[in-house]
Every structure is written in structure tokens, then in C-alpha cells.
């Protein structure tokens, strides 16, 4: 071979991933591989995890075939790009153990050609194949093997390894889901146990008494999540034959003999190696107890003597071999005890301690490389899932699943694990299990330790479709960190102790335990939280005793809310304000719903907490569903007007109004946060509060001006609602947009009347702007004629003259949301009659006016957007935001309200609904617009609830964004999904707006 050709071949081998190119050249030059030199065999091997091992395996398999015709068939396969070749090379190029099996049984390579990833043999078919391999009749009620014991043991091993090879080929080449692989391995284990039992029966002496024997799989075999190389945990259950007399003897001895022989049949080494150890140590009393027990004996043990960990182990119990009816009797007898185990004394602490013991037994040299037992390993997921199952499975049968991923899915679906947490744990567990499978499959060795050999890590990385060991290391540790974070969050949260109803000290937090648990629960300032806890629980008072009982439950609820630290701090402040009030702690202690509502509200952000701290007695409404119903304007207005009449001092009078507003804002906040009230209902309730507030403020201002004048007002005065107030779509931070209108009484001096009306308007504004720690209600009259440059108060005639001579189309548009608010009813009626022809013009809009509306909107978008702001993040002025939807609805009103009476509404959703009914808007377009409008309004409200401050922007701060997303119902860690959902919704709305507002001729 020429030097250039040799160098080219070496380069191609190195490029294909061969580590030892010299050895690979020698293999390719072997006469047995003659005829393959011109094929793409090297390129095909480049796709396997270990090309060197794969090429050696090809040579070994070719040699093992012995005859030339058989070798020619293999050469033909290797020269042809097919799924069969891909699967064979995947096995030879990764698992040395399975390569050994193929070389020992060279005809088994043909099995891989008939494989179908989507049509793998089921459990019954695998059972039949394994029983047939040992000469037993699969259809027999009690299968018995036929043949010499030594031959049967070899046959069992060969059949088992043959199935493993086929499954591994699909796993490596077709990337089967790890859950499917683990389930198939468990089914194969069950079939193997059935065949081993048939072999054991064949070895019984003919005089042995008959018995019924069931094999119960435990652990990973029971959960149908078995590894390639693992012990198979079992429990044996026996009973005498159904027709045996009551005094029958010897049957238990037979059962014990069969169980012992079954275990030996699987674990003993023969010329074909071994299968796996069968471990019965999970039986009652462990290795010290009898190998076989009756159902009644098992039930009595678990009822009287079993420890907590034994019930946890029983979660995965499943009959897999022998007498299936008996196996089901065992499950029916013990499972009810599993689902009451969480009520045992110190259950949660026992499980925690068991988990710590597992970690303590890790060898120090392996601690950093333990895939199963180490921090962030498989056991973290399994323990967390099992604990949650045992605690909540008492009342929820959907959690009765022995499979870890199945149980995790049920916990997520049931709301016991957050959607994001559940998805992260599912993905991490699948990766860790796949990694574990690859480590074990290499040599079919039972190990959970990540190797430290760079070469082996390179092979493992390639088997997982990763390029380099460093990439594998990064992915592994990232997944482990996520698992550990969520394990601590779920596994150690005190809420579980409360749910399990542990008595005495089991639910009380010591300062030492509290700091660790608070950190695990997600408190940003564990030390600060601990100080709050110490203040709340220290002492021997009744209040401290009750709070020590309450806090484990509340801490869990706080932790599940957006702002745990805010919740705990708020609870302390409210408790300090009300702790001596007898009903307060009694309410929280005796009413779980009230306590949970309080935790949810306090830990959702600053807004509700600050309201409650100003009026802590509002806690009382948390325990009364009727008290949480949103109130209408009438009763609120009646209350404040009566209160105002009792105070001559306007400041004292406005204090009554503010007290009402403070209380009612808290009521709305609770309905929003705890009962997920629709955004329209929130807007309606907030509008009713604002109207009652303005009505009370108008009454107080009127009394003050009349007192200073020494007589009644010389004019009728009214307040007209505009903007969101008029549309009954107020948010928590909305201003009160208004117009002031008056009309002098007959024979009254117009100048004096105007002066008095202005004095009342100014006094109303002053009273509502007095400094206060609670949320303010800003009165904004900027929508009046001539804006801020025009007079604050006008007569009805002045409004008529202005609109007739100077009114612009944008002012007509603003009047679409004008509605009576408070003051003189007759004057409000006359004002409505004045503006109705203006906002609902008979001729609709001229082409020029239509152009003006569109031009003004474009100018608003360009001029009012804050400098440097990302338009897509602006909830009001951004594409698909509130303004887009509202202007589109208002354009339809301006053009068609004169002929469609239903369009004469101040409500944005109401106008859209009317447009659909009139055939002016497609139902699908309405849905898109309303969805975007509602979501933007909800985000604005949620931002105020979290931060206590108004904002028209999606939050930039990740912590605030996460909190807002949780208030809106997203899980922890789903803030990115939340932002994506808003942008998708807004984009769809903008598309409709551009078509309807700018292009549609309707």
C-alpha cells in the first residue's frame, strides 16, 4: 500500500472516531473482512459509540461463524445500509458483554433484522418464549421445564441474553425512550422468573407436597423500571392448594424449596454465565425472616411490626410469576396499609432519616461520581416522588402507581408538583436513567458510578449523542443540580408534616431545622425569615403555641406562592397587630381555608399585604365565603354617604370614604388572588369602589364648600366618568378620569355658580390627594375640552358650544366611554343627551375623519411610548396591547353605533360582542382581540399586586417576572412560557388589528 494511501486511510479512520487507527487498519486487512474494503463500513462504524470495539466485534463475529456461506451472509449485510446493519453495529460498537454473547451464539445476529421499534413483543410473548426455551408449556396452569438441570440453566441464560441483545439494539440504534426500555426489561425479568420457577419445579422430587406459590416483584422490577444490570427484588407468598385439607403439611417446605431453587436458577454461574441475583431481603424481617410466608402472615407483620421504609418499599409491589391469583390476594391485603402509612407517628421524619442514611453510605471515593445515591441522583427523584405519593395517596387513588415517572406525572396532573417542577424532574430522571443504562450496558455490570476514564467517558458521550466528555459532564451536573434543588424543595417542606398530621413536636420548627428548611423552600432571605419565625414562636403564651402549630402549614403555602418572604413578614406584622384578638388565631387555627387564603394573599406581593396591614381586621372576611363576594356600587355608596354625613370636618369625612375603599380593595384582591376572579369582574368591582369613593368625596367636598359659603350651592353639579372608569374596566392602579359639569339654578349668578362649582371640584381633588400610605385614587380631568389648559368645570351650555364648534374626532372618541358617575341625576341625564349624537354620529365617519383616527393612533404609538422601551413589552401601547384592541372596538362604534344600538356601550368586550352580533366582526377575530385584551389587563393588575406600583411594561426583573407569572397561574420557573404566551397572543391580536383598523373598509 502506498504511503499516501496509507496516510489517507489513517486520516479517514481518525475522522470516523477510531482511537487506535493502527489496530483498525490491521482489522480491515484481515482476510475475513475481504470484500468489505470498498464498502462504507468505516462510515457506518463512525456512527456507533466505540468504532474500535465495533470493528473488533465485526472481526470476532465473522470468525465465530466458521463457514464461508454464513460469513458471506454477514458480509452482504455489512455492505448494505439497512436498519439491520445499524442495529448490529450499534451493539458491537458499544457493549462488550453483548458482543461476547453474539460471538458465542453467532446466529443471533439474524434476530436483529426482524426488530420493530413500534411493535416489540409484549410481556405475554416474552413469557412464552422464555418458558419454551426451557421446555415448558406456556399454556399450562403450572408450567414445568423439561430436561437436565444444567442444560435448562444454560438455555435460560441464552434465551434471556438473546432478548436483552435485541432490546439493546433498538435502544442504541433507534433511541428508544428509557421508560419503554426499563418496562421491557422488567417484563423480561418477570418472564425469566416464571421460567426459573418452571426449572425449579422440574427439580422437585415426585413426593413433594403440592403448594401455591406467587412471586411478587419489588423495587425497580415491580415498578417496571428495571436496569440492564440490577438485582431483582422479590417477595415470595405461598398457600396450600385450594383443595388441601386444613391439616395439610409440607406445602410450606415445598414452597421454600421452590423459592430457593428459583433464586439459584437465576444467580448461579454456568458456562453461559449468570443472569442477575434475586434478592428477597425486602421480605418481612429481612434476611432474618422466613423466605416464604402466607398472605395472612404478611398482613399481620405489616399491620403490627413493619417500619415506615417497608411501606415505602411496598409501593412497587407487583405479582410477576407463579400463581397470579394468589399474588393479587397479597397485593389486595397489603396495599390498603401502604396508603395509611403516612398517618404513622413521625412518618415524614422517618423517611427523611432514611434518605440521609442512604447518602451516608456512599463511599467517599465515589461521592462525586454516584449517579444513583449521590446528591441530585436518581434516589433524590425517587424518594421525593414516593414521599409525596404516600402523603397524598391516601385520598387520591390516581397516585397509586409504582412507576416513578408514572407517579410523577400523576403528582403533576393532580397539582401536588408544579407543572414546571414536574417537567424538569421528568426530563432529569429520564436523562439520569439513560446515562445509568449506558454505563451498565457497556459490560452488563451492576454499577451506578460514573467512570473516571476519559476514553470510556468519550464512548458514553457518543452513545448519548453528545460530542465530548466535557459536554456529558456539563449536562449530567446541570441535571443533578436541578434534581437536588427540586428534591429539597419537595422532600423537606414542612407542609408534608402538617398534611401527615404528625403529633407533638413533629409539626414544630426548631430554629436549627427552620433555617435549612426555609432555604430549601425557596425563601430568598432564610436568616430574615428565621427571625420572623423566632419572633412568632418564642414564649409560652397561647399565641406562640398556636403559631407554632400553624407555621409548618403556612410555610408550605407561603413557599408555593410568588413571594414567600413577603408572606412570612406580612403574617408576622398582622399577627402582632391582631395577636391578642381572640378571634384571629382561632380563625386561622380552625379554618384551613381562611389560613390558606391568607397565606396566598400575603405571599403574592406587596399590594394586598400593605392593605391588610392598614386594616388588619379585614382578615375576618377570609373565613366567610359570603364576605368575599364582590360588592356592587349601591351598598357601598349608601355606606359612605351615611358616614360622610356624620362628620363636619371634611378630612374626617374622607377618612370614612378611605376606610371603605381600603377594605373593599382588599376584598377584591382576595377574590382575584384566591378565587381567580375574571378580569372583567375585577374591573367592575374596582369601578364600583371608585364610583362610591368619588360620590363620598363629592358629598364631603360639597358640605365643606357650603359651610364656607354659609349656604347651599347655587348650581347643580355632576361628575361624568371617562376612560376606564366610564368603561367599568378599572385596574388596581387606574386613575379616575372625569369631567365636571354644572348648571346654575335659575336666577343664580353665573359667576358665583361657576366659582362654587370650581371650589367643590378642587376640594374633591384635594381630599382624595391627601397623603396616605394606602393606594391613591388620582382624579384626572385632562380629557375635558381644551385639556389641562381649559377650565376644570364647565356649564352644560359651554360643553355644547365647545363640541359644536371645536370638537375633534378624538374628543368624540373619548366620549364613547363617558358615563354618569355621581352628582345631580338630572344634569347627568342632560349631559348624556348632549353627547350621544356626537359619539354616535348618524352619518358615521367621513373619510377624512377615518384618516384622522388612524393618524392619531399612529402618532400615539410613536410619541407616547417611553424612550428606549421595547414596544413588544408594552402592555398598553405595544403591538396587540390594550390600545390596539380598544381603538379597534371604538372605531367600529364611531362608524356603526348610530345604526346598531347594541354598540352604544362603554365596555370594550361589550362593543366587540355587539359587533359580532351585528355581523361587523368575525367571532374568531373577537376571540383573538378579547384574549389579548384580557391577558394584558391581567398582567397590569398582577404587576401592581406583586410590586405595589403601576406599570404598563412586562417586568424586566426576573424575580418580579416570576412572581407576576405565578400570580397569573403559571408554575414556578414558567416565566419564559408566560412571556411567550403573551407575545403569541399579542401578535395574533395585532394581525387582526392591522386588518380591521387600518385595512378593513367596513
From TrEMBL:
A Pfam family the protein falls into: GlnE
Q: Which cofactor does it need?
A: Mg(2+)
GO biological process assignments: regulation of glutamine family amino acid metabolic process
**Per the database record, which ranges form the PII-uridylyltransferase/Glutamine-synthetase adenylyltransferase domain?**
353-491, 856-997
Q: What is the uppermost EC class here?
A: transferase
Keyword Nucleotide-binding among UniProt keywords:
yes
EC number(s) per UniProt?
2.7.7.89, 2.7.7.42
Q: Which reaction equations make up its catalytic activity?
A: [glutamine synthetase]-O(4)-(5'-adenylyl)-L-tyrosine + phosphate = [glutamine synthetase]-L-tyrosine + ADP; [glutamine synthetase]-L-tyrosine + ATP = [glutamine synthetase]-O(4)-(5'-adenylyl)-L-tyrosine + diphosphate
Asked whether the UniProt record includes Ligase among its keywords, one would answer: yes
The residue ranges of the Glutamate-ammonia ligase adenylyltransferase repeated domain are 87-329, 596-831
| Region annotation Adenylyl transferase: where it falls in the sequence | 503-1002
User: PANTHER family given for it?
Assistant: BIFUNCTIONAL GLUTAMINE SYNTHETASE ADENYLYLTRANSFERASE_ADENYLYL-REMOVING ENZYME (PTHR30621:SF0), GLUTAMINE SYNTHETASE ADENYLYLTRANSFERASE (PTHR30621)
Outline what the protein does: Involved in the regulation of glutamine synthetase GlnA, a key enzyme in the process to assimilate ammonia. When cellular nitrogen levels are high, the C-terminal adenylyl transferase (AT) inactivates GlnA by covalent transfer of an adenylyl group from ATP to specific tyrosine residue of GlnA, thus reducing its activity. Conversely, when nitrogen levels are low, the N-terminal adenylyl removase (AR) activates GlnA by removing the adenylyl group by phosphorolysis, increasing its activity.
Q: Which family does it belong to?
A: Belongs to the GlnE family.
Q: What is this protein called?
A: Bifunctional glutamine synthetase adenylyltransferase/adenylyl-removing enzyme
Q: Which organism is it from?
A: Jiangella alba
Q: Which gene encodes it?
A: glnE
